[in-house]
Description:
Blueprint: H1 5-9, E1 23-26, E2 29-32, H2 43-50, E3 55-64, E4 73-84, E5 89-94, E6 100-105, H3 107-116, E7 120-121, E8 130-140, H4 142-145, H5 156-164, E9 173-182
Antiparallel strand pairs: 1-2, 2-7, 3-4, 3-8, 4-5, 5-6, 8-9
Amino acid sequence: MPVxxxxxxxxxxxxxxxxxxxxxxxxxxxxxxxxxNLHFIEGPVLKRLQDGAGLVFSLQLTxxxxxxxxxxRRQVERFVVSFDLWEEKFAVTRLGLVKQQTSHLSRDxxxxxxxxxxxxxxxxxxxxxxxxxxxxxxxDDPRDSGGFILDPSLTLARLVDWFGRAPxxxxxRWAWERGPFRLNxxxx
Length: 188
């Protein structure tokens, strides 16, 4: 798949071009895999988990047909990650209307699980039109969220507004783009 110069330059954290995320079409849902060398459960994030904190990660996927002048689709998923000190394994819970959870995961498996449980509906989109996808991942700092991160009535508009704000302090954030691509060319 072709990758624009903008896509290559938009990767944060120094990920090389060959490590761009893979996209796939999964029964009407666009799935994004994290770049192969992206490990977001490390450094200060891992230390906080090992100190007993449960951390909320927000993963936002945005689809556009015109290089992000307008947004075609947007989905935000939230996950709580915790660390079991005795077993040295991770547990992940997907928040929202339909909660899902898993445990006894390695670091890599926990990172992958979040991406495997996030996606964008492709219903009604043309398969032969060019598309761009932006993926944003951040570790939520409860001090920045005003307590709304775990609020079950959280709206998409509030999350989009929150994603637009710069995180304070040591908050971690990653973002990358991929495109153009055509839906009918994606691996199924």
